[in-house]
Amino acid sequence: MTSKRLTTLIVASLALGIVLGYGVHVGASEATATRFADGIGLLPFAFLRLIKMIIAPLVFATLVVGIAKMGDIATVGRVGGKALAWFVGASLISLLLGLIIVQIFEPGRALNLPLPDVGASSGMQASGMSLKGFIEHTLPTSAIDAMARNEILQIVVFSLFFGTAMAALGERARVVLEGLDALAQIMLKVTGYVMIFAPLAVLGALASTVAKEGLGIIGVYGLFIGEFYLGLAVLWGILVTLGVVFVGPSVLRLVRGIRGPVLLAFSTASSEAAYPRTLEELERFGCSNRVASFVLPVGYSFNLDGSMMYCTFAIMFIAQAYGIEVSLAQQVTMIAVLMLTSKGIAGVPRASLVVVAAALTQFNLPEAGMLLLLGIDHFLDMGRSATNVVGNSIATAVVSKWEGELRNFEADVRPTNA
Asked: What is residue 162's three-state secondary structure?
């Protein structure tokens, strides 16, 4: 299935899912609507399981091949250093933007809803940040276990060691390199088969959510949702502008090229679902395989721009709703803490909520405030996930340009290995 046709089907499925879900919500009993939502919700559930099935072998194979083709540890360190420099800068911009937007509009003060009791539990498991916890989350005890649990950051760490060792062995590792290169191509082919089911997943995701919640919840939280999406739009503008500055006007072609993966991430509320197609589009744009297959998976752990902006936006929203003042010093500390605690979160639904819950506990803000967001989180996660895809795509293009590995491909050229 071509990228253009898939994008068209996804857009049609978005519209059909909303209409179908709303029809069930207003025309059926609550029990019937719940059964319908649970039943059709199996479509995105099955699709995301298929995506998770291919993520680990795809990330491992493409990343190891990319590192091995770089040739030496100095090159890996140089590319990794440039990528991390961009990730830190983009994360800082995202966190600051969320902090600024939420304090300009103050949606928490305009919320006309009864507040949950401060002692109520949100049901989100919050854990404080510690050096030991960070190490446990980063370094795998078993590569097989990391792949089984789709711990992308741990897979990246193992792949770094494996790929660097292959590069050091040179010709003696060539047979393994060729095998992993073939594996990467096989997994991309499998990705094509899995993507055939993407429109059904989009239909099921939207129909299930709207059948359960209806569109009324958007009306109640309309101001909050609108201001958050305005913040995302501003962030897109900043990221694209930076892309034009560092890459050139051709980055606009990249933005057009990734509209399919962006729509997929938006409709399924999972940037992870868009990973395979994003990698293909980056290679089609002209990023070399070895840079794209290195920067993109690392970005999925360190460069979730939409999730970053949401963290500060949501925390300050809750503080405003409860009338709690957060000092400038606390806001600066909050940004520093979130820069650390957010790294390594997977691009899957509700991961940001865990980070927000942990930060609320750390800054003595009521965790019960999470209850104000749980009902609309799916609609917010759609925007976060789409933004994560845009941010990582531009980051990969920028690092490719810095490395001199960005070819001037035409838009219709199929991706190839570099």
From this structure: helix
